[in-house]
Specification:
It is a single chain. This protein is an all-alpha fold and about 450 residues long. Among the domains are: about 1-45 and about 180-360, no CATH class; about 75-160, no CATH class. Helices cover about 70% and strands about 0% of the residues. The protein is built from 20 helices and no strands. It has helices spanning about 1-15, 20-50, 50-75, 85-95, 100-110, 115-130, 135-145, 150-160, 170-175, 185-200, 200-210, 220-260, 270-285, 290-300, 305-310, 310-325, 330-370, 390-400, 415-420, 420-425. The longest helix is centred in the middle third of the chain and has 43 residues, at about 220-260. It is elongated and about 115 Å long. The relative contact order is 0.07.
């Protein structure tokens, strides 16, 4: 759930003008999953028709291991050099003639009509017999043979390198074994599924990018197809690197390790196919590192400064990821996965540097073509003297009037009984009424000090 929230946040961050409610994000996720499932089913059905060829394709690393192991045990200083194919054929022919009498075997060799093959068939038989003798008695036994000198030197060279002379030594490893009735059919389904992922990977990558980066503009859509082509090329490069170089080396390592411990390499076909497909797909996904990093760079989540400053931490993280992703615990295999990822990360740093330089150039060009408007400046103060004599008085009056809590009026200033007009206060009467005494106007000279306001007015 936390990963889904981060993906949704990434979608909104990539295009802020396309914000959606959470349920609409889930609807887009459902659409993406449906498209991926339909694409995988169609590609899987198409690849199922080639299941036999797919099986031969994934068995080639095992055959390469057997070829490498056999070639390493064949002598290079023998009078007649022998190849792996000739040695394998000689072992099979020798096994077929094992129960024949001497006369029957002679007729059998003559029927082959191949003097070179007959020579190697006899060397296989004598080498197997001499290897069972004590080391001190092997040379006397070989010297007592009636064969020619080249044959004796050939057998002695074979005893020094100790190639495998058993006819069924690699039979189990070549054919392998299925311990369940349905294991062969399920292996065909698994191989078809893996092949379907490889074939439909560009479409799967497009669906994922459309979900993570919605609302693409026309220019971004034009860039999306080359990005998918690069991503598909990196995936194929990783899968090919694992299939042709890393997988055979890992298989050879385990084959030799088991042989040195005296353990027979009777591998199950199901376990081997799971190992090989997982190995191949993980390397293909690991090679997608530049695509992921450059997407983060385009979104502004990563930059050249951050990547170059945290290079050492990234290398440690790559080795940890290689230790987790590789299905083998050996250090050489982990290094074979980590080394290309480190190289790809360095390439990403350079690409981020080029991206930063391009953005800076675009900003500089935009600044030259569209210069910013000038900043308005305040008018300079003038030295003309003020000739208004009431200017200082008015400014001081305004200052006192705007003080907090002072509106220029207090209760002690208000004495309405002192300022009522005699004419307004006199009651209206008829002409016949007797007039009252005239109101007494206070004399300013006889008014008491407390009847005056602070300014000296009544």
């Amino acid at each position: 759930m936390n990963i889904l929230k981060k993906i949704i946040h990434l979608r909104e961050h990539s295009h802020p003008d396309h914000e959606k409610p959470f349920l609409e994000h889930l609807e887009d996720l459902r659409t993406m999953i449906f498209r991926i499932v339909v694409t995988l089913v169609i590609s899987m059905i198409a690849c199922f028709a080639f299941n036999n060829k797919l099986m031969d394709f994934f068995r080639q690393p095992v055959e390469q291991v057997l070829l490498t192991q056999t070639k390493a045990t064949l002598p290079t200083d023998a009078p007649r050099p022998v190849t792996v194919a000739t040695w394998e054929q000689a072992r099979k022919v020798e096994h077929a003639a094992m129960n024949l009498t001497a006369d029957q075997r002679t007729l059998f060799y003559q029927s082959l009509n191949d003097e070179e093959l007959e020579f190697h068939v006899k060397s296989v038989s004598i080498t197997r017999a001499a290897s069972k003798l004590p080391p001190a008695k092997r040379d006397p036994f070989i010297d007592s043979l009636t064969e020619n000198k080249d044959f004796k030197l050939q057998v002695k060279a074979l005893l020094r390198t100790k190639p495998n002379t058993d006819s069924d030594a690699q039979g189990n490893l070549k054919m392998m074994s299925a311990l369940k009735p349905t294991e062969g059919f399920m292996l065909s389904m698994k191989l078809s599924f893996v092949a379907g992922i490889v074939v439909s990977f560009p479409l799967l990558l497009m669906y994922i990018l459309q979900f993570v980066l919605p609302g693409l503009h026309n220019t971004e859509k034009r860039v999306l197809w080359p990005a998918m082509a690069v991503g598909f090329g990196l995936f194929l490069s990783g899968a090919t690197f694992a299939y042709s170089l890393v997988l055979p080396r890992a298989l050879l390592f385990f084959y030799q390790w088991s042989g040195d411990m005296g353990i027979s390499n009777d591998w199950r076909i199901g376990e081997y196919i799971s190992f090989a497909t997982q190995f191949t797909l993980l390397f293909g996904v690991a090679f997608e590192l530049p695509v992921v990093v450059m997407v983060f760079v385009k979104l502004g989540l990563l930059g050249y400064e951050t990547m170059s400053r945290t290079r050492s931490y990234a290398i440690v993280a790559i080795f940890v990821a290689a230790a987790i992703l590789t299905p083998t615990p050996d250090i050489p295999t982990q290094c074979l996965m980590a080394a290309p990822m480190i190289v790809l990360y360095e390439i990403c740093i350079w690409l981020a540097w080029f991206e930063r330089r391009k953005n800076r150039r675009l900003e500089e060009d935009e600044a030259r073509t569209n210069p910013p408007p000038p900043i308005p400046q305040d008018d300079p103060p003038t030295d003309t003297p003020n000739t208004d004599p009431w200017a200082d008085y008015n400014s001081q009056s305004d200052l006192h009037a705007h003080e907090a809590g002072d509106d220029g009026w207090t209760e002690e200033y208000h004495h309405p009984e002192q300022y009522e007009s005699p004419i307004a206060a006199a009651p209206t009467s008829s002409p016949d009424a007797v007039p009252d005494a005239a109101p007494q106007v206070p004399d300013p000279d006889t008014t008491k000090p407390h009847d005056k306001d602070p300014n000296g007015t009544c």
